């Protein structure tokens, strides 16, 4: 299975659909969009109600897929967003932050959600939670808790970005790419979904160029030297 490149729904000021339309028109490299759904309130619900038909239509027309970053505030919003999106859009992967500092009831809900085959768990700066499907966030790993081989073996999605002077979500840089390659080796190029979490369109474009140059160099020489 070939690797799919994607980016987030926060590249230009605007709604989910406005970002998807712009990104798929300007960046032909991208084959999926990560819909960032960091909470689930009335405004978010109404926006998806307004845009879901447009999102379905453009996905078919431009041959793209959707992943989702589920809410990070509480497990109730996670479940409500998950249920709605499963019913209304074709989502190939859900990215979930681990919920551990919560009530026993919420822990049970979290564990139940983990059994769904589309759910994947992202590493955080504060901690790493192992699961059968994991998401490797480059910035979180470099700046915080380190993932181990048991986590790496289960990666289904990579969140790619530059990490410069202690800040993540920056323009991709060669030093960061070298570090990631040392960790993942050839898996860097075979994990199914690679999402550029860079929120500036010019920096995103430059990051894509560096990624392609780096990948070509590895394939042609087998080395980063």
TrEMBL record:
- Organism, per UniProt? Fervidobacterium pennivorans (strain DSM 9078 / Ven5)
Supply the name of the protein: Sugar phosphate isomerase/epimerase
Q: Which domain of life is it from?
A: Bacteria
């Amino acid at each position: 299975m070939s690797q799919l490149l994607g980016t987030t729904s926060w590249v230009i000021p605007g709604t989910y659909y406005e970002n998807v339309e712009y990104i798929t028109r300007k960046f032909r490299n991208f084959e999926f969009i990560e819909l960032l759904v960091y909470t689930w309130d009335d405004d978010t619900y109404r926006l998806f109600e307004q845009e879901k038909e447009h999102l379905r239509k453009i996905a078919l027309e431009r041959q793209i897929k959707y992943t989702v970053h589920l809410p990070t505030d509480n497990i109730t919003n996670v479940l409500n967003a998950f249920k709605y999106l499963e019913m209304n859009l074709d989502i190939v992967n859900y990215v979930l932050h681990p919920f551990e500092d919560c009530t026993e009831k919420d822990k049970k809900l979290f564990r139940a959600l983990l059994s769904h085959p589309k759910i994947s768990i992202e590493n955080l700066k504060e901690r790493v939670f192992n699961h059968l499907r994991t998401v490797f966030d480059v910035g979180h790993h470099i700046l915080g808790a380190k993932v181990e081989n048991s986590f790496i073996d289960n990666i289904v999605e990579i969140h790619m970005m530059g990490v410069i002077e202690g800040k993540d979500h920056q323009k991709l840089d060669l030093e960061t790419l070298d570090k990631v390659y040392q960790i993942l080796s050839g898996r860097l190029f075979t994990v199914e979904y690679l999402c550029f979490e860079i929120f500036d369109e010019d920096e995103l474009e430059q990051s894509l160029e560096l990624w392609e140059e780096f990948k070509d160099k590895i394939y042609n020489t087998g080395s980063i030297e």
